[in-house]
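fwd from M.: "can u put these together and see what the complex looks like"

so here's what she sent:
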Amino acid sequence: MSSTIGSHFKVTTFGESHGPACGAVVDGLPAGVIIDQAKLQKYVDRRRPGQKHTTSRKEADFVEILSGVYKGISLGTPLAMLVRNREARSQDYQELASVYRPCHGDYPWQLKYGWRDPRGGGRASGRETVSRVMAGAIAEQFLEQYFATIESEHRFGVVAWLESLGSLCVKYAPDEFEDYLEHLTREEIDASIARCPQRKLEPLLEEALSEAQSNGNSWGARVVFAVRGLPPGIGEPVFAKLNSRLAEAIISIPSAKGVEFGQGFQLCSLRGDQANDCWIPSSDDSAGQPRLATNRQGGIWGGLSTGATIWGRVAFKPTPSISLPQTALNTEQKTQTISIKGRHDPCTAIRALPVLEAMLTITIADLVLAGELSRMEQLTISN
Amino acid sequence: MSSTIGSHFKVTTFGESHGPACGAVVDGLPAGVIIDQAKLQKYVDRRRPGQKHTTSRKEADFVEILSGVYKGISLGTPLAMLVRNREARSQDYQELASVYRPCHGDYPWQLKYGWRDPRGGGRASGRETVSRVMAGAIAEQFLEQYFATIESEHRFGVVAWLESLGSLCVKYAPDEFEDYLEHLTREEIDASIARCPQRKLEPLLEEALSEAQSNGNSWGARVVFAVRGLPPGIGEPVFAKLNSRLAEAIISIPSAKGVEFGQGFQLCSLRGDQANDCWIPSSDDSAGQPRLATNRQGGIWGGLSTGATIWGRVAFKPTPSISLPQTALNTEQKTQTISIKGRHDPCTAIRALPVLEAMLTITIADLVLAGELSRMEQLTISN
Amino acid sequence: MSSTIGSHFKVTTFGESHGPACGAVVDGLPAGVIIDQAKLQKYVDRRRPGQKHTTSRKEADFVEILSGVYKGISLGTPLAMLVRNREARSQDYQELASVYRPCHGDYPWQLKYGWRDPRGGGRASGRETVSRVMAGAIAEQFLEQYFATIESEHRFGVVAWLESLGSLCVKYAPDEFEDYLEHLTREEIDASIARCPQRKLEPLLEEALSEAQSNGNSWGARVVFAVRGLPPGIGEPVFAKLNSRLAEAIISIPSAKGVEFGQGFQLCSLRGDQANDCWIPSSDDSAGQPRLATNRQGGIWGGLSTGATIWGRVAFKPTPSISLPQTALNTEQKTQTISIKGRHDPCTAIRALPVLEAMLTITIADLVLAGELSRMEQLTISN
Amino acid sequence: MSSTIGSHFKVTTFGESHGPACGAVVDGLPAGVIIDQAKLQKYVDRRRPGQKHTTSRKEADFVEILSGVYKGISLGTPLAMLVRNREARSQDYQELASVYRPCHGDYPWQLKYGWRDPRGGGRASGRETVSRVMAGAIAEQFLEQYFATIESEHRFGVVAWLESLGSLCVKYAPDEFEDYLEHLTREEIDASIARCPQRKLEPLLEEALSEAQSNGNSWGARVVFAVRGLPPGIGEPVFAKLNSRLAEAIISIPSAKGVEFGQGFQLCSLRGDQANDCWIPSSDDSAGQPRLATNRQGGIWGGLSTGATIWGRVAFKPTPSISLPQTALNTEQKTQTISIKGRHDPCTAIRALPVLEAMLTITIADLVLAGELSRMEQLTISN
């Protein structure tokens, strides 16, 4: 079991879906960060169940800060947070003590640990991600205040939106994608029930979600993420490169099955001169400042941020919990038909977006702290 | 800088492209592993430059073992290995001291560290991966011997092959892909100049590579990987899941821009009943043993191996070093035209395949050791 | 800030003295350990304040388990525990917001973090150790059950007793010290108000403690610890040797100023032939089994346990919080006279004994798990 | 096996006594440190064998830098160093393949790993410490340059001297000990064959060493260490306190059996008012600047440096390798008489002094880097 992520901004999470509580301990947060509890709560509320087209499980998810803050300011000591698991309908899961849901952790977890909490998947439940979002909220407050002290073109910010759901897919007008990458806001994204910024898709998305929910089925979805305002040089080669650490963090999210940076898999079919990002020649640039003509690589070169927006895509598979009948293995090593009850999202990706943002932010907070140590301040020699 | 990967099978690498040597230290290798030096050398030779359609840099890459082995058997102490950097044509790189190659680490590394070795990209060179392959060879010898003591349907093994290069793409006959996943051998793969198993593509691939090389251009490529014979339960949720740790390791490889597990991004457009892997009902199965009907998820559920073959795809961008003229930034913060000399692969992915296999193997060795500790051996209680 | 200890049995603690709660998260506990909550509570109660000659602060210190346990058995997931800080007389500490108590963390913490919780010393309070004791209780239950599956001469157990307080010092009869090392029980130790096993010292110790308490002064003390039933081979050279890791854990306890293993500092004045532990020649040994004639080294050779009892001594300085007037620095960078109010132990060491036992046990649990991976099971070759 | 120490300034060592080489990899060294190879070599030479009254094994111990440095300046990439094991008289150790030397690692290492290199103790040899000293040399060059950019009363520096050997013990004149702590130099210490600064003891020490050598015996010794010029606030509570991390590093040195900070074990017999360090009242201080009247605590409060000199003592046991006959266990589980041949120091502590300095410096480098991240730079609020 490995429930700590990060080497400098260290996040440890705990909690089973139907146990007493879920929580997170953030160790390594510097002293002097103003902790805005209302903002923290609002951040956590974005992944809360009980919204339309999400599981009907309703949890207040009130975040209690247990340590690390004095008079609203971080102490530099571990900041522990807790949410209680209030409404746990464990009875929905009694059947699951004896049968493994297909494509869930149930089966390999039982083989690995020999003992598991079958109620809602225990620690393998999506409920676990509430701890990540709590930590992400702290990471965001830290980074916003940290970068406020640094001159920067852009304000630091992380967003993610839904680009496709099943066969429904956003078609971008010219420059629209680039515009989204640089300017789309969480408010604009959250205005959509599916967190998809293209309003004309809204009725179709809503219909698809309703249909899946009533059919006891679910949808996969593709998501775009963007990190703005990150200065160049973030990342710790050769193993903790910015992209490798982000990939680890992203793929640790339940249901995430793929990740790509910049044009990603599209780059496989291109030539070098089609894939490279080059600068605009000084002569062609009215501003006179060298700038990149393109951002096909997703803002990361050699494992380090370049100062451009970091972007990429994530594949979320359909929620594996469906109520349609499936052939499953049971604890007697026999097959049986299962129809999964309980409350499940018709598309995991929608509520996973705040989790994705949290994981990106936590990882960046860790690497930003690591990067503080990369060179002697007085270094005057340079190539 | 973070040049150690793993928590139990810990690999630390060092070395610049044109410095005295590249090396790796493996700490955490158990005692009692028979170390076959010839096999190690052969494993490392698979990524060696100087083969056709790869860079013409020729290095003997003779691996010297410095510690950790006594009379051919591992001691449980750190196993250090070294290859000397023999043929380093540093003069090819003198121009690069004052200009940043587009899409290389040069630019952000300079901003981060304020000081860099411009010869061949220094530590940001693909040369660095020779250290990873040395460690991968040790990991493979360990795992093969480790799993030999465990009853298993399949023998443990890792393979990877090239599935597409530019617009050339393998078309699989029915069941052919599944057959490759389970049975394709390294020997069969290495018989192709491009490490692509479909022989009819060979002339086209060779032509495309020759053309890129003569044009001073390069190609992107897509790669499939498969890990066979891994028992169920490998992975350490919630942050060191098998897929999240593999993603981190894979994306740390130079030029890797995306990774997906199982059907990955294709799952985004599917419904739950189309994406889930279910068992074959006992009644339909002649063997009487429950088995999975499909392996769309890539052999990982809830972050743990299921016993099925682990598989996925990796996107490699075109080699960014091309001799075609590009507009680059120089250290004077001005743009200038650059035409990159030196010896470069027309398609990075081909030589990256052994590196990919090495990173997969290293990561699995680490998680296999971690998994040893997941439960009390005497545990008799179960759900 | 570094509030996690251990690489395999990982303990993360949090909490300020007068914040909402103190807690611990244990990650890496294997699945299948029976968690006895009553035993856990009893273990924690041993360090509870409010006993005679300890601080009069009274805390129920009721331990709530938040995660990681299902039906009384560990899941292999993080086990989080919490105690609320109920009776916090913060007003006692208002003066301390502007003056640094001599030999406390106040002064360097302020310089380091620029912000601190002055109430009771915040995280630098002895209150913090309640988290360690919670984790120690879990480590003990784990190790007891773990070693029950291994054949062993002795049962695993950790004890510590007070050997001196100020100028009062235990005088051991011949063989008495060795007998204590092997057989003294926690019950026998706790029968004494000062946790000193020599009953004839009891009235003198009680008098010394009363006097210190009424004078607003305090006493230093020397403590002996013993770890029994540890099999040989525990420890991870060259940096995580058993003794080096125990030293780190011990010295992290507030007020611990020194540690020695076996005869420790006494060995400085001896010759090799006086200091070495040798075997009893077979001819002299009635049992016919080779055994060690002495245990001067404290049961550790080359950084590994030998199978003999691990023992050593720890120096605890006098409680630095005394109500006698002292010249202190204040936040205005001026000196002022301070007389520390609040509730303080006349001898920290007494309540620190369970903390010492906890730290020893946590560290051993970590190294026992690490040691599981030291060699291939099938290894048949040996020197 | 755990051969990496540190979380930020990470040192990984490798090498067996009679294997091909010993080495160290330093990862986390910032870019821009001027690496003076001659100074590095001189630092390493201080622990070299072949000096009078040390083992007669002669090794050039020429340090080769393999990576991490370009044109004499650190790159921020891993700095790997190597010394070859030139003169290895393995034949001296052939007998040891079948018998375990008392109080050496031989016995528990064999039980743990099942396989060991018996030549000179393999990795359990004192030879291993050459890697630590190489890394210590780099840490010292880093810290000297790092602190040169910070205003400080004192220059950063680490020294250690021999205070006692057997029954011979330095008697300090009034204020002499404090004077040594603040001003004694390595040159003054190295002027003595035993690294003892009191010249009148020199003939007695030399006689004691000669006698031990001719008798095939050895001596224990007590050592004092001092770290000067460390700013306040270094240390990472609650587990990586400055003293706990130093204790871990010190006790990992072969033959170190105890460590104390400041007056250490002497504090056990004192009262709080005798043990605390207080400030000199402003009225009594001619300089007008508040300063501490005493430094009994060794310069560490609450686990953090205070700005005062860090000091303490270390107990080194007598070299366990003696040629006098001893009863040992052999690999047949029988006892036999052993007389250890080979070349051994009559007092390990003398050559261990540079190792002690190296371990102190490595640990401080790690905590200094960690401390960079403890608070937001713009923090303006304070208590």
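replying to her w this: The CA atoms of residues 195 and 210 of chain B lie 15 Å apart.
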